[in-house]
């Protein structure tokens, strides 16, 4: 049956940008930059996202738009009677696992947002902010309850489909995200002592380049663009043949880089202005930032804005992840969407409960010396993303006919000329080698 379609190009771009701009850009990028040299990490992330991440994003767009099918059916449509559809099953499975622990972090954000509204996040000491975070994530009832609320919000949007659900929500949430970011950036960079934080993010020290920094930046570009789990295959399957997917891809890449930059400009100037360390790691958002905002004039209000922004970004990513699962089951039969969305969403919630409890009652339950949350994260981030991206590059570069690939890229354009040859060379040779390096590194083999 025929897929639903985006009503406009801007609707597609905002939805895809919303998928990519989630915890990766706002939560993970600042702490990765903070622990890997600041400006030099940002520079490497910028270059690798443009030259490695973007070609993979375009490859996923080609698969989805050429087939007009979901993540599994797309491979059956393009290369029937082969086993490439197994890659589709892998993407759907990884998306299910990803959302099961992603929703846990989404729940934490809801907990913090409620506390910011009630006023209980202001006036605490730095140590008390650390204890508050530990107390929240170790409380069995609270973490499961807020995870359920996060999944409920996700289900309610995705059940509406592409036009009435995801696209409509993204058209409001993404512009709101940019406006909130600009307000917070202005407040942060105008703080006394913020210039050191700005320099940390924007003035690279090339002495800080190491092999680890390069590999971490490459991994961040994959995570931030949501490539490797076929999110963009599913979204592109709803795209008209008239649209220029190359231009759309680089628009999304540009928005993703911009949001990462803005996140850094919100966090690092404030961190330096109030004497905190940029290398606090994953707790930067949940422990350090509340303490930073507590020192600001109207800090409670600005903290509320930041948490609301983070919730918007996290939800738009969750929409796309759940959509992969739903689309693979519905297969264009729209009457099934609401029913399938609720069943899929509830199953994701149930599977995610052990991850939610990993910092409390199940903290001592380890598999391969990892908590359930850490294991789920490892399977997706260190195994699924690079492996999925590698197979996507090989599929488009070697299995799809060059003529079909070029035709899809040139739909909606006046021809790409040498740009197509450069991209095609990259997707066949440069990208697979780069992904192989990061995959091997993530497994600790080098």
From TrEMBL:
It is found in: Membrane. Keywords: Membrane, Symport, Transmembrane, Transmembrane helix, Transport. The keyword Membrane applies. InterPro entries: Na/ntran_symport, SNS_sf, YocR/YhdH-like. CDD domains: SLC6sbd_Tyt1-Like. Pfam families: SNF. The chain crosses the membrane at residues 12-33, 39-63, 84-112, 132-155, 176-202, 214-238, 250-276, 296-329, 341-363, 383-401, 422-443. It is a multi-pass membrane protein. NCBIfam families: Na_transp. PANTHER family: TRANSPORTER. Belongs to the sodium:neurotransmitter symporter (SNF) (TC 2.A.22) family. This is Transporter. It comes from Litchfieldia luteola.
């Amino acid at each position: 049956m025929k897929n639903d379609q985006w009503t406009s190009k801007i609707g597609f771009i905002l939805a895809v940008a919303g998928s990519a701009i989630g915890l990766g850009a706002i939560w993970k990028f600042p702490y990765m930059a903070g622990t890997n040299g600041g400006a030099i990490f940002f520079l490497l992330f910028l270059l690798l996202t443009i030259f490695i991440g973007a070609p993979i994003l375009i490859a996923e767009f080609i698969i989805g738009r050429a087939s007009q099918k979901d993540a599994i059916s797309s491979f059956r449509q393009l290369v029937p009677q082969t086993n490439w559809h197994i890659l589709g099953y892998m993407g759907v499975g990884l998306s299910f696992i990803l959302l099961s622990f992603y929703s846990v972090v989404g729940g934490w954000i809801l907990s913090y947002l409620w506390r910011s509204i009630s006023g209980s996040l202001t006036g605490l000491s730095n140590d008390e902010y650390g204890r508050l975070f530990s107390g929240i994530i170790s409380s069995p009832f609270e973490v499961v309850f807020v995870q359920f609320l996060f999944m409920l919000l996700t289900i309610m949007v995705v059940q509406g489909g592409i036009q009435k659900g995801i696209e409509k929500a993204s058209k409001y949430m993404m512009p709101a995200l940019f406006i909130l970011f600009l307000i917070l950036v202005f407040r942060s960079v105008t703080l006394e002592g913020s210039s050191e934080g700005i320099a940390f993010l924007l003035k690279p020290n090339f002495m800080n380049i190491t092999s680890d920094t390069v590999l971490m930046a490459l991994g961040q570009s994959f995570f931030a663009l949501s490539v490797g789990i076929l999110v963009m295959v599913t979204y592109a399957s709803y795209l008209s043949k008239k649209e220029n997917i190359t231009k759309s891809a680089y628009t999304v890449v540009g928005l993703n880089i911009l949001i990462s930059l803005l996140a850094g400009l919100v966090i690092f100037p404030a961190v330096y202005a109030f004497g905190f360390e940029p290398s606090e790691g994953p707790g930067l958002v949940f422990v350090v930032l509340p303490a930073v905002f507590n020192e600001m004039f109207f800090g409670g209000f600005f903290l509320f804005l930041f948490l609301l922004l983070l919730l918007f970004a996290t939800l738009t990513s969750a929409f796309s992840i759940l959509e992969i699962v739903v689309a693979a089951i519905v297969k264009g039969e729209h009457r099934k969407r609401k029913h399938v969305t609720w069943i899929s969403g509830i199953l994701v919630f149930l599977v995610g409960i052990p991850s939610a409890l990993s910092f409390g009652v199940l903290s001592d339950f380890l598999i391969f010396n990892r908590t359930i949350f850490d294991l789920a994260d490892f399977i997706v981030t260190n195994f699924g993303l690079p492996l999925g991206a590698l197979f996507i590059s090989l599929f488009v570069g070697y299995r799809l006919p060059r003529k079909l690939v070029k035709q899809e890229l040139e739909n909606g354009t006046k021809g790409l000329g040498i740009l197509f040859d450069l991209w095609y060379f990259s997707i066949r040779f440069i990208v697979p080698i780069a992904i192989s390096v990061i995959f091997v590194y993530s497994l600790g083999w080098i």
